[in-house]
Amino acid sequence: MLAPNTSVSIRDLTLQFGAVQVLQTLNLDIRDGEFLVLLGSSGCGKSTLLNCIAGLLEPTDGQIFIKGRNVTWLEPSERGIGMVFQSYALYPQMTVRGNLSFGLRNARVPKAEIESRVARAAKVLQIEPLLDRKPAALSGGQRQRVAIGRALVRDVDVFLFDEPLSNLDAKLRADLRVELKRLHHSLDNTMIYVTHDQVEAMTLADRIAIMRNGRIMQLGTPDEIYNRPQNRYVADFIGSPSMNFVEGHLERGTFHGADLQLALDGYRFGAPQVADRPAIIGIRPEHVATGPLVDSAPIRGEVTAELVEPMGSDTLVWAQLAGKPFRIRMDGQARVSPGDRLPIGIDPAKASLFDAKTEERL
């Protein structure tokens, strides 16, 4: 039984290459009009999953539904999808107009309809002045817009993006992120987007599926992923710099770690109801209080700055706590030098607590 208002549904999807299981009994429902990002490091299975949805790979087991239709064994052209790849793959001998209309001409769409769709896509993507240019006369960002436009003219229900911005420089990536967000708002189509870049994921997604070893480690909104990671892997993967971890033991609602004790009674993760056990506390660098805020923090201490990275809007300080690297994000105007003693404060309500054995959130 498919959930209502579901655009794409994955049921028990498995993919094996010989003895290697690339996707492991994966289940996922993507809502109508949702922007879903598949996020993970190289080899986690995110592009493989996208290629299964597109029909470019045949799953070993399981089913794929698009708009309620079982498309598991259908050809890509029969699935009602548009796909944008990492490479632009434009025909160099054709103009932008020719590239946009090529697939429609092959499908014998009426000429007036082709012109209408090309004009609409060009307007949405702001490439109308480029229609008579060839790809060699375009910048990287303009070429990627044309590649997106080629999918757009197909007038499909679901768009698939496989790391479309990874070949661009940092500024172009930021600019096109904004364009993609605007595009989604204007079209309201379902979009599935693969990336290893957490900034892209957090800024673009309605929901993020974080993948590892062919499994979904957590599915949630950017806010849920950031503030309530379900396990240590997700907590470590999201955030730059990543979360600080301190190992210790949970006993009667108090976390005991080397150089750190946190009384957790009354805080949101309900630690007093959790049995005593080895545990790990996670604290994001931006949640470590410094300066005047230290005085109001429930837990206070002091560390020695070892390395300072001025970032303009922020200053990143590297120190040690309990014999492990401990990162602190401070205001960009902070004046800190290596060797300085730095008072810090920690609010347990902003920390995450994990079981040391399973690494799952408590």
What strand line-up does the widest sheet have?
6-7-8-3-9-10
Number of distinct helices: 8
Give the overall form.
globular
CATH superfamily descriptor of the largest domain: P-loop containing nucleotide triphosphate hydrolases
Helical content stands at 10-25%
- Biggest beta sheet attributes: 6 strands, mixed
Mean pLDDT: 88
Total domains = 2
- Class computed from helices, strands and strand pairing: alpha+beta
Number of strands: 21
Portion in beta strands: 25-35%
How many angstroms does the end-to-end distance come to? 32 Å
Q: Which parts are unreliable, with pLDDT below 50 for 5 consecutive residues or more?
A: 266-271
Specify Rg, calculated over alpha carbons.
24 Å
| CATH C-level name of the largest domain | Alpha Beta
The ordered string of helix (H) and strand (E) elements is EEEHEEEHHHEHEHEEHHEEEEEEEEEEE
The CATH topology of the largest domain is given as Rossmann fold
Organism: Rubellimicrobium mesophilum DSM 19309
GO biological process, one term: carbohydrate transport
Protein name: ABC transporter domain-containing protein
Keywords: ATP-binding, Nucleotide-binding, Transport
